[in-house]
């Protein structure tokens, strides 16, 4: 059977440049109207029993070339279970991975994909549970709804939102775990949290970029996490409608869920450089980190981003903007595209399952500190 490479599906991204014997050369396509690219997701057909090497020749010019050393590509033959390609290497600006498929078709991706179809199924499933309401906060530039799930009856206002950068699909796997936990009637932590807080949850901040197979931007090439200071209907309606909803409810606690290409750890980034920083915000953020360390060994505090100096925070980023705007405890959660070097898993690396478990742990840590927020 002739080998065929395709990416014309939900979140697909690759361009075939050549097939020579057992070597397939590929390029990742840029985000629309943007220089960003790194996300790939494609199918290889006609590969049964063939040991093939896939070469992404433009990896060295991608958005984060530091993300390739130590990285292992993801593969699946059923689109349910995603493992890591052991024979993955990066050299001379090229990502190579070699794999022998057992069946006719195999899928490869930068991380286990979270399709818009799965998003719609998640939203429908959670919205059908007792005490949950579903609303659209607005529409994207491609006309998709900005889904928001609301639950709980407590006075504390908690906002959880994910996937501003659409290629960071682990963020919506985290959301699936958090939503399933939070709506479990038998979970005592979830029951207590729902009494103490009202949750506003946006599982996917960038539906257009997710469907288009973008790494970091929306339909017109805009990085949404640089729009929170002055979002507009023309460039960033996704941020505008969410921020407007936050203005109506107020915010006591906010978490923006992401993935990091280069750093092989789970970590948090805070808001230490905002102009109006308050001691209570700092202590609340530190207390949450301490609680999360206890709740899961997948989290650590030693490695992460540099902390901005006093008054030097970038207020176009959501965590900084919300902490400044509402005086709340806000944070960015980062998960690895690679693996967690503190607790590595050679077969799966960082995975959808671990992302979901982290979502549960993050809620448990919030329960530990919510009374003081």
From TrEMBL:
Q: Does the keyword Isomerase apply?
A: no
Q: Name one GO biological process term.
A: proteolysis
Q: Record keywords: Secreted included? A: no
Which metal ions or organic cofactors does this protein require, according to UniProt?
Zn(2+)
**GO molecular-function term, one example from the UniProt record:** zinc ion binding
Q: Which SUPFAM superfamilies match?
A: Zn-dependent exopeptidases
**Superkingdom of source:** Bacteria
Family note: Belongs to the peptidase M14 family.
Q: What is this protein called?
A: Carboxypeptidase family protein
Please name the source species: Sphingomonas chungangi
């Amino acid at each position: 059977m002739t080998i065929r490479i395709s990416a014309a599906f939900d979140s697909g991204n690759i361009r075939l440049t050549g097939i020579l014997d057992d070597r397939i050369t590929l390029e990742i396509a840029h985000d629309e109207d943007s220089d960003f690219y790194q996300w790939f997701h494609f199918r290889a057909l006609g590969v049964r029993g063939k040991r093939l090497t896939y070469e992404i020749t433009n990896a060295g010019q991608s958005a984060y070339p530091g993300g390739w050393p130590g990285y292992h590509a993801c593969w699946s033959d059923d689109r349910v279970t995603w493992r890591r390609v052991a024979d993955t290497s990066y050299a001379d600006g090229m990502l190579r991975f070699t794999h022998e498929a057992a069946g006719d078709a195999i899928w490869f991706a930068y991380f286990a994909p979270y399709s818009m179809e799965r998003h719609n199924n998640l939203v429908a499933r959670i919205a059908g549970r007792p005490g949950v309401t579903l609303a659209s906060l607005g529409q994207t530039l491609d006309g998709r709804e900005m889904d928001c799930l609301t639950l709980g009856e407590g006075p504390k206002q908690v906002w959880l939102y994910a996937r501003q950068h659409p290629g960071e699909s682990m963020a919506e796997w985290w959301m699936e775990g958090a939503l399933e936990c939070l709506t479990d009637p038998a979970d005592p932590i979830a029951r207590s949290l729902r009494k103490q807080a009202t949750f506003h949850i946006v599982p996917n901040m960038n539906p257009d970029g997710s469907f288009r197979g973008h790494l970091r931007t929306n339909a017109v090439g805009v990085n949404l996490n640089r729009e929170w200071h002055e979002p507009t209907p023309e460039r960033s309606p996704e941020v505008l409608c969410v921020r407007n909803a936050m203005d109506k409810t107020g915010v006591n606690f906010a978490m923006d869920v992401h993935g990091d290409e280069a750093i092989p750890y789970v970590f948090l980034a805070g808001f230490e450089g905002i102009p109006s920083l308050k001691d209570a915000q700092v202590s609340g953020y530190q207390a949450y980190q301490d609680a999360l360390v206890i709740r899961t060994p997948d989290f650590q505090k030693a490695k992460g981003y540099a902390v901005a100096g006093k008054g030097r925070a970038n207020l176009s980023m959501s965590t900084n903007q919300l902490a400044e705007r509402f005086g709340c405890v806000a944070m960015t959660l980062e998960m690895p595209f690679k693996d967690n070097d503190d607790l590595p898993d050679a077969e799966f690396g960082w995975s959808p399952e671990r992302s979901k478990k982290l979502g549960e742990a993050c809620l448990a840590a919030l329960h530990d500190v919510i009374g003081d927020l």
